[in-house]
Amino acid sequence: MDNRTDFGTIIVAVCVAGYAAIMIAYVAEAQFGIAATVIRHLSIIAALFLAFPVVLDFLPTRTDKAP
Fold it and tell me: Phi then psi for 62, rounded to 5 degrees?
C-alpha cells in the first residue's frame, strides 16, 4: 500500500470544509442573530483546535531512546 497523502483529496476536503463553514456562518448570523465578529473569533478558535492534531500527526516522532 502506498502511504502518500493525495493532493486532490486535501483540496476537496478544504473546499467542502469551507463551504460548510460558510453555510453555518450564514445560519448563525441570519437566523440566530450572532454578530459577525463573534462568529469570526469562534471559527478561528475552532479551526486551531481542529488543526492541532493534524499538525501533530505530520511532526516527526523520535524513535531513538535517550540513555
Answer: -85, 125
